[in-house]
Amino acid sequence: MATYHIAVLPGDGIGPEVMEQANRVLDAVCTKFDITLERTTYPVGGFAIDQHGEALPQTTLDGCEQADAILFGSIGGPKWDSLPLDKRPERAALLKLRSHFDLFSNLRPAKIYSGLEHLSPLRSDIAQSGVDVLVVRELTSGIYFGQPKGLEGEGEEQFAFDTMRYSKREIRRIAISAFEAAMKRNKKVTSVDKANVLVCSRLWREVVEEVAKDYPEVKLEHIYIDNATMQLICDPAQFDVMLCSNLFGDIISDECAMLTGSMGLLPSASINGSGFGMYEPAGGSAPDIAGKGIANPIAQILSASMMLRYSLGEVDAADAIDAAVVKTLEDGILTAELMPKEERVNASSTAAVGTYILQQI
Amino acid sequence: MATYHIAVLPGDGIGPEVMEQANRVLDAVCTKFDITLERTTYPVGGFAIDQHGEALPQTTLDGCEQADAILFGSIGGPKWDSLPLDKRPERAALLKLRSHFDLFSNLRPAKIYSGLEHLSPLRSDIAQSGVDVLVVRELTSGIYFGQPKGLEGEGEEQFAFDTMRYSKREIRRIAISAFEAAMKRNKKVTSVDKANVLVCSRLWREVVEEVAKDYPEVKLEHIYIDNATMQLICDPAQFDVMLCSNLFGDIISDECAMLTGSMGLLPSASINGSGFGMYEPAGGSAPDIAGKGIANPIAQILSASMMLRYSLGEVDAADAIDAAVVKTLEDGILTAELMPKEERVNASSTAAVGTYILQQI
Ligand SMILES: CC(C)[C@H](C(=O)O)[C@@H](O)C(=O)O
Ligand SMILES: CC(C)[C@H](C(=O)O)[C@@H](O)C(=O)O
């Protein structure tokens, strides 16, 4: 019987309530597949600021160090928005965890589930043609972390600067992530850059071309970020895996998520070179609906499934969760935001969706 | 009788044929409003490379220097894509003209014309709610032009770097453009940044807040670029003026253009501190349809109208062109790409649309 240690960081807003459902579903697959998941819960985000004075207390970081993976909820909210930037939940916890564990490979799948096409903000013929994209975003370099960064000068000539920076090594490892993912999907990689303007993008293209040689079955295309933003809207079905730098991936992955119209269904994974990873919903902490029992737990549950698949290698358990989610959606067990306004009286609660999913396992 | 000198740079692809129609329409308003526009045509882009060995010959630059404004067509095409980056039409001509004339204020209006809602790739209820956005993009600084930029190191540790850089002065002048534009529109500015990650964005926010104090009637909001990309898709009607840095404006303006579904209708202006400007369609040179007489001339004609309005101060003439275009669209005088596939047998040619427009003047 396999035993794993998981650091559970529920965070703020809807984090704790959706995490509760993910834990219930994990209990169900553990029983079925004879897995032991030792889970320890740690404070993070605004909750940790309120309790311990900082968004990522040392005990939380230590707990993550000792774990095989991190299951993360969501963090932030208006209460902590007036803190200095470096203390805020997003930077002090999220960016810190990414860089501390070198979680360079961020996988953000976005798809329109069959039957939920009407949620997409796209014209119905385009939504019907489908959105099923995996954004592979570089997460620990680029303009997020590049040095130098700062302010210089005086008066009107005072200027700010940020450095976008990529090494061949950094580009190569994320490109490999994208091609490996494409081999398990539809064998197409679209690399997003701005090679007509950025030196980083030129090196990016060069290294991506080199990596592509090792994957002759995968079709590679290059697209400028401005054009990618447009093509996603008028013809999203042309994309399979989209390979992006940190900043462009931030933009493209959010655009893809919005195109599905169901952010509450989308998980994400952030993985390092040894398979250690952090798994979290694509959406935010949604403070406006927190505590009401109406938040969609599926993104959190699918994040747990990605954790089983990518960090623990428990593929059967992950498949079981994914299948249970598909069945639940097909059976119309939906939280309110997935339903047309006039049908929302029949919406399922956070807990009811969790229960239905674990019953399918 | 006012006399102006215009440098006309038709360029490549559909550039020359749509420029021909813009010239005919300009002739009509000149007669009606007693304006003299002395126009001299100069080579630019791939055409100039073929004829003179470079995308922006000195004679063209000199001609622009002596003019009151530049009316630009479009440049580039597969024929010149294999040239080294610095020789290619986009960089050698477009970026060069922008920086040479300090054309820092790029105005890109995007709207869905009444009756053309079906062209939008958005779900019909969203398209019906309307898209009417003016993107004000900073065009001569940021990561496009920031120094240093380059490649260093060896082997896998070789790295590329680009510098995003903004001074208070540069931010202030583009912010003023945005607020001035908002005063003539719906009095709302949404400033797009990534202040949770970039030092440039923090200085951007600070200066934009300062400028806002001089425009108490204008409502100011700040939005992160990733969220802006999403909000544009699910609720574009919330935006009036979107104020963006160079890179974010590149992305946001193209997204806005795509949301209208009618890129062939969208003009743009790039203006400097003395009112000198370059006016060009938002779309590209469309080499695939060049020379067939089917390209939509309206973006070029509206670019001529923006030129009359912003560089020459001939507001009545500009209003006349805009009204003629609206009437033409309402009367259903459309090029093929604006029509449903099954109706395209009734499409108007490039010249027929030009003729109809000038008849309305
Ligand atoms: C909160 C923010 C710093 C973060 C990012 O830009 O990476 C978020 O937008 C994301 O995509 O995870
Ligand atoms: C051709 C390219 C350099 C240019 C830009 O990025 O500015 C284009 O995309 C534009 O928006 O005018």
UniProtKB/TrEMBL annotation, chains A, B:
Q: Identify the residues that bind Mg(2+).
A: 226, 250, 254
The record's annotation in Pfam families points to: Iso_dh
Source organism superkingdom: Bacteria
Q: Which UniProt keywords apply?
A: Amino-acid biosynthesis, Branched-chain amino acid biosynthesis, Cytoplasm, Leucine biosynthesis, Magnesium, Manganese, Metal-binding, NAD, Oxidoreductase
Which top EC class applies here?
oxidoreductase
The processes (GO biological process) annotated in the record are: L-leucine biosynthetic process
**Cofactor binding comment, as recorded:** Binds 1 Mg(2+) or Mn(2+) ion per subunit.
Q: What is its EC number?
A: 1.1.1.85
Instruction: Indicate the annotated site residue(s) for Important for catalysis.
Output: 144, 194
Query: What cofactor does this one take?
Result: Mn(2+); Mg(2+)
Q: Amino-acid biosynthesis as a keyword?
A: yes
Pathways involved: Amino-acid biosynthesis; L-leucine biosynthesis; L-leucine from 3-methyl-2-oxobutanoate: step 3/4
Q: Which residues bind substrate?
A: 98, 108, 137, 226
Coiled coil residues, start to end:
none
Reactions performed catalytically = (2R,3S)-3-isopropylmalate + NAD(+) = 4-methyl-2-oxopentanoate + CO2 + NADH
**Domain called Isopropylmalate dehydrogenase-like: residue spans:** 5-357
The UniProt record gives the binding positions of NAD(+) as 77-90, 284-296
What is the protein's quaternary organization? Homodimer.
Query: Which HAMAP family does the annotation name?
Result: LeuB_type1 (MF_01033)
What does the UniProt function comment say about this protein?
A: Catalyzes the oxidation of 3-carboxy-2-hydroxy-4-methylpentanoate (3-isopropylmalate) to 3-carboxy-4-methyl-2-oxopentanoate. The product decarboxylates to 4-methyl-2 oxopentanoate.
Spell out the protein name for this chain.
3-isopropylmalate dehydrogenase
Species this protein is from: Glaciecola nitratireducens (strain JCM 12485 / KCTC 12276 / FR1064)
**Gene symbol of the encoding locus:** leuB
